[in-house]
Specification:
This protein has 334 residues and is an alpha+beta fold. The chain folds into three domains: 104 residues, DNA methylase specificity domains (Adenine-n6-DNA-methyltransferase TaqI, Chain A, domain 2); 102 residues, Helix Hairpins; 122 residues, Alpha-Beta Complex (Adenine-n6-DNA-methyltransferase TaqI, Chain A, domain 2). It is built from eight helices and 15 strands. The longest helix is centred in the last third of the chain and has 39 residues. Belongs to the type-I restriction system S methylase family. Keywords: DNA-binding, Endonuclease, Hydrolase, Nuclease, Restriction system. Pfam families: Methylase_S (PF01420). GO terms for molecular function: endonuclease activity; hydrolase activity.
Length: 334
């Protein structure tokens, strides 16, 4: 339950009907019309809600912790058991509130309830923190990508590191690379869930194999079907399939910079209009773009590499904590 103004969308109502709305106090629960994700929303705030909803709270908050029940009502086990008091034939079936109120629920002492609620609340706060950090960094990266590369028709970016003032020079992609070629075919039987060397295709990691065909940092361009123009990267010994074009910068340029340059260029537009789009290496090499000197390339590539590392870190922490919470929900409730 959130305030209407925080919903992110317009929610209209007739103010004259508010007299019939139901009061929601902090610590109470609102039963949704459907059982999606349990259908029981905990409210940390006071307000009113539509009379179409059922609102309930513990008889005595000195014996029942709303924070405990908040997590219990969202636990996979509770949602599964909720099927005994729902009706309908589709997902999101209606909840029979009267039958729900007659069900038996096992619960621990008030002190244990508080500890369980506090533990899971702390995890929720950390999960939210890492998600927020991830989103903020992703937004920052997008903004910097827009400002640190020249806009169409310009040869200088809006934002630069101190000391760089020269205009960027127009070059063909093929002139920037020491290697610019498609990967090799690999049988599906040679790709496993584990192995010494990763296998990359047009959409990134596909699995692992026991041999490699490239070594070092590369930008990879998807070259077939819906993945045309998709850009990802690989660093170290790896195997690149024929669905990817491997690009490595020459001595005058920086591969780390090229990775972000290629990612901004909408390369899919050069795939043609056939039923099965494809990117030819020769076509890619002839595409023109603007680039700075190598020292500025390195500064830009290093900045975005650090941002990507932080974004990945917060995403990993978020996922680890979400997995931990799921495990605790399975183990801390009977």
């Amino acid at each position: 339950m959130i305030r209407r103004d925080d919903s992110g969308r317009y929610v209209g109502h007739d103010a004259s009907n508010e007299v019939g709305y139901k009061r929601v106090i902090p610590g109470s629960f609102v039963v949704h019309l459907r059982s999606f994700q349990g259908g029981f929303a905990h409210s940390p705030i006071e307000g009113i809600t539509s009379p179409a909803y059922t609102v309930f709270a513990a008889r005595c908050l000195s014996f029942q912790s709303d924070r405990f029940w908040k997590h219990w009502f969202m636990s996979p086990r509770f949602i599964h058991d909720l099927g005994t008091v729902t009706y309908g034939i589709r997902d999101g079936r209606s909840i029979n509130v009267d039958e729900f109120m007659d069900t038996l629920q096992a619960y621990p002492s008030f002190e244990e309830q508080k500890l369980i609620g506090l533990t899971l609340d702390s995890l929720d706060s950390l999960i939210t923190l890492h998600q927020r950090k991830h989103d903020q960094l992703a937004t920052l990266k997008k903004s910097l990508l827009d400002k640190m590369f020249p806009k169409p028709g310009s040869d200088v970016p809006e934002l630069r590191f101190a000391g760089f003032t020269e205009p960027w020079e127009q070059r063909k992609l093929g002139e920037l690379a020491s290697e610019f070629q498609s990967g090799d075919f690999i049988p599906a039987s040679d790709i496993a869930d584990s192995g010494p060397y990763p296998v990359y295709g047009g959409n990134g990691l596909r699995g692992y194999t026991d041999h490699y065909n490239h070594d070092g940092l590369y930008a990879l361009i998807g070259r077939q079907g819906a993945l045309c123009g998709n850009v990802n990267s690989a660093d170290g010994k790896a195997y690149f399939t024929e669905h990817a074009v491997a690009v490595s910068a020459n001595e005058s340029n920086d591969t780390g910079f090229m990775l972000y340059l290629l990612g901004r260029m909408n390369l899919g537009q050069y795939s043609g209009q056939s039923a099965q789009p494809g990117l030819a290496v020769g076509v890619l090499k002839a595409i023109e773009t603007f680039v700075p000197d190598k020292s500025e390339q390195r500064a830009i590539g290093s900045l975005f590499a650090r941002l990507d590392s932080l974004i990945t870190l917060h995403q990993r922490k978020h996922d680890q904590l979400a997995t931990l919470k799921k495990s605790l929900l399975d183990k801390m409730f009977v």
